[in-house]
Hints:
This protein has 61 residues and is mainly α. The chain is built from two helices and no strands. The chain has one domain. It has helices at 2-25, 29-60. The radius of gyration is 15 Å and the shape is elongated.
Amino acid sequence: MNQLYKVIQIILIILTGIVMINGIFNHDDMSKLIINVTVLLWIILMVIVACIIRKIHEKKN
Length: 61
């Protein structure tokens, strides 16, 4: 279970890095918006998956 949270944490760090690099080097507002919304949706999806996995893990114990 701890390994899953470490993987999710690494993915979140990578996604945050993508947003920061996009903000620095990309000057087109539309592509910034698309990338930021996509990353936000990925983060929300990962939070939902983590909550579901935690609930399943709690039911097993």
